[in-house]
Design the sequence.
């Protein structure tokens, strides 16, 4: 290892390729409101705001980074949030009634689309279904991972942001997903979309201060989709008696165990807040009490995030059981990340509520299996014993073993003999260098380099 400057630690591999990462600067301490860390292209450390979250829940109720709550029932694909190098989108769908629900969430990064779908609670990369756990590593060190730890979690880790550029959590609600998008503080200056502008000012969260105007502003992809319907309150159509029954059910949010959180996370009332959105859900279901359960869970989740333990709330609400598929069991303290065939003893970072395999089993293709049934998996694709693959992001050649694990070794790149007018160069998704011609172009008597000498990469 060597240090070309005080901000950078570098290593040189056997191919003469330098890999560098930004060194921590102990003179810059990030804490409090600005506890996030960002490194610029010269590895100068700066402090940025703490990460913030935006959510889409149930029919759907949106909550922006700055805390504005609103409903929007458009049926298209919408930009939800963005940063300087990636964008997040959400696609809504209709379940046969006026409200819409979140059907999928998508991350666009470096020309790839990573998506979580409600149907089958499945994962797609560039419109092809893949298996989880999924990991895509780019040669500069950026990674996109998608894991199932009771819920699907998609994480983008970038070389210049700590700890994550964006984390997208999707909770399966049967026919739809509830989504939470958590952005790195450096994105506050860039983000636009359904999640608002994230500048601490709620008054400018919605374009025109109107949900439909705001949603149409960020509509993408679906040129033929209909205009969003006008604001709709299903409680107006079911009569005063049923509306009162809906209110009584939702008032459980003011009783134990939820009452312990009411002073931390306000529940609102019949006209606004969690009680209002809960009533909307029940009225839409013609006063079926179980339709309140997703909203109870959304409230519990926000309470947990604010330090109030409501992980066992379902034990106190008899009409909100949780049914897991197959052999999975519901846990309020399931491991994050969950053990998988790829990583059977992961370093735990926390716990989560959701469906998990029992100890000693691993989720594979939606089924809990023992270690003897594990199959080799790379970037969402299964391989059989004896098959080989090339991992460009990790610069490895791997073979699938009978144990279901990959055995890898470094790629041996061929020697290059570039012509005098060529430069040795690297592509971001490729491990080995190549000879690049036409690396300079003359335009109006000025020289513009269309490829620098990229044998130094920061990670």
Sequence:
């Amino acid at each position: 290892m060597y240090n070309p400057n005080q901000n950078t630690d570098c290593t040189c591999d056997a191919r003469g390729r330098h890999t560098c990462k930004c060194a921590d600067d102990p003179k810059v301490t990030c804490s409090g409101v600005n506890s996030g860390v960002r490194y610029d292209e010269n590895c100068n450390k700066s402090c940025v705001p703490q990460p913030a979250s935006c959510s889409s829940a149930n029919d759907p109720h949106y909550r922006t980074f700055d805390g504005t709550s609103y409903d929007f029932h458009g049926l298209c694909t919408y930009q939800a949030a963005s940063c300087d190098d990636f964008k997040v989108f959400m696609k809504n769908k209709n379940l046969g009634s006026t409200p819409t629900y979140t059907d999928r969430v998508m991350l666009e990064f470096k020309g790839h689309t990573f998506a979580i779908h409600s149907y089958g609670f499945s994962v797609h990369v560039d419109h092809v279904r893949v298996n989880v756990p999924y990991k895509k590593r780019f040669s500069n060190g950026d990674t996109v991972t998608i894991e199932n730890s009771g819920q699907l979690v998609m994480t983008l880790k970038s070389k210049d942001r700590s700890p994550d550029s964006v984390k997208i959590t999707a909770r399966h609600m049967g026919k739809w997903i509830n989504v939470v998008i958590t952005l790195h503080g450096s994105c506050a200056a860039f983000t636009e979309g359904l999640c608002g502008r994230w500048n601490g000012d709620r008054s400018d969260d919605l374009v025109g201060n109107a949900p439909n105007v705001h949603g149409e502003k960020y509509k993408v992809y679906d040129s033929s989709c209909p205009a969003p319907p006008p604001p709709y309150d299903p409680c107006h159509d079911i009569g005063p008696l049923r509306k009162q029954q809906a209110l009584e059910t939702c008032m459980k949010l003011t009783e134990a165990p939820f009452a312990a959180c009411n002073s931390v996370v306000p529940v609102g009332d019949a006209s606004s807040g969690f009680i209002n959105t809960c009533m909307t859900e029940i009225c839409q279901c013609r006063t079926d009490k179980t339709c309140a359960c997703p909203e109870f869970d959304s409230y519990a989740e926000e309470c947990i995030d604010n330090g109030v333990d409501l992980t066992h709330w379902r034990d106190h609400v008899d009409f909100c059981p949780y049914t897991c598929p197959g052999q999975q069991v519901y846990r309020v303290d399931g491991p994050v990340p969950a053990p998988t065939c790829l990583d059977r003893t992961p370093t735990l970072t926390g716990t989560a509520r959701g469906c998990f395999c029992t100890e000693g089993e691993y989720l594979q293709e939606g089924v809990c299996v023992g270690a003897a049934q594990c199959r080799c998996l790379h970037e969402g694709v299964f391989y059989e014993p004896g098959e080989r693959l090339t991992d460009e992001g990790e610069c490895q050649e791997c073979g699938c073993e009978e144990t279901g694990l990959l055995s890898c070794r470094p790629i041996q790149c061929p020697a290059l003999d570039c012509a005098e007018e060529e430069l040795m160069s690297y592509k971001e998704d490729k491990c080995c260098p190549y000879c690049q011609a036409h690396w300079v172009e003359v335009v109006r008597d000025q020289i513009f380099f269309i490829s620098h000498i990229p044998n130094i990469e920061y990670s």
User: Anything to note?
Assistant: The chain has four helices and 35 strands. The longest strand covers residues 100-109.
